[in-house]
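Q: What would this chain look like folded?
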Amino acid sequence: MRKIALWLFIFVFTASLARAQDDATQQQIDKLSGQVQDLLDAQAAQGKRIDALEKQIADLGDKLSQPAASDSASTDDLKKLAEQVQEIDQKRQDDNQKILDALEKLGKGGSVSTSHKSPAVPATTTTDSTSAVPQKGYDYEIKSGDTIAAVAKAYRVQGVKVTTEQILAANPGLNPKNLTVGKKIFIPDANVK
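A: My prediction, written as structure tokens:
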């Protein structure tokens, strides 16, 4: 009887060990099944990406095989463009001539009515404080945003040969970094006789 009890004990113990091993094995199998499923899902996603890339490559190949649209201009387009440039250049020359005529008339003391806004005002004569020689030129009223360089450039565009240094020399005490809006300054013009 003792032997039977011992064999029964060994059988129950072995059965419980086998069941524990079965549970551990089942857990490992479940874990591996989950990992395999994750790999299969990742593989399916990669397959979709590869299919999308293959489609894009095929589309690009189709675009390359089609004749390209012409990005160059035709001879007629170039002729039209050249005519437009000549037209604009003629208008520029006409405007420059009008400005020069207006300046000449201003220099003679006449009044000018032009459609172009001119920074020049009627010619005046002033005496430079450093010399007794009267200077001829124009009075200019400073506007918001003006700089001496911008004013000089505006007069040069109209044919008056003047530099910022000449404007500063003709206006002693003028601070180019602090121009007062509404203040009149003198723009010398050596061309005016």
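The CA atoms of residues 152 and 163 lie 6 Å apart.
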